[in-house]
Amino acid sequence: MPHIVLNGKVDLLKIQDAFQPIFLKSDSIIRVKEMYLNSAKNNALYSTLVIDETNQEFFIEVLSGDSKTTIRLFPLTDPEKTDSVKNAMVLICKSIKELYPDIPVGKTNLKDYLLGMSIHC
Question: What three-state secondary structure class fits 115?
């Protein structure tokens, strides 16, 4: 399962306040439409649409714990793990890193995708 771990806690309420929908068109279309925050403010879901070989709607989950923040695909929506789906996860990581540039990327299996968008691991 693709994932990105940031080695630090982020304030998801601050991220929600700064949230702007994402739209990227290249060989595919990536659209991150909305962000939903749970009442404990430690779990967010991003409503995402990817159009590449297929059309897929799914959620990307961001879990903020005491010492790390994890970005992963929400297991109940389980899209096909295409390059565009992985790039959508990286775009969310990039938006978080804009607010928290000092939190480093830790464990990930998307290193090449992060480097492709100039996010250092």
Answer: helix
Cα Rg, the chain, nearest whole Å:
13
- The answer to whether 91 and 22 have CB atoms below 8 angstroms apart is yes
Q: Are strands 43-51 and 69-73 parallel, antiparallel or unpaired?
A: unpaired
Q: Which residues contact 11 (CB under 8 A, 6 or more apart)?
A: 41, 64
For 34-77, write each residue's pLDDT tens digit. 999 999 999 999 999 999 989 999 999 999 999 999 999 999 99
114, containing H or E segment = helix 111-116
Q: How far apart are CA 84 and CA 95, in angstroms?
A: 16
- In terms of Cα–Cα distance, which of 55, 1, 69, 60 is closest to 35? 60
How is residue 88 written in tokens?
A: 């959508």
pTM (predicted TM-score): 0.94
Ranges of each domain in the chain: 3-116
Q: Is 99 helix (H, G, I), strand (E, B) or coil?
A: helix
DSSP code for 116 = H
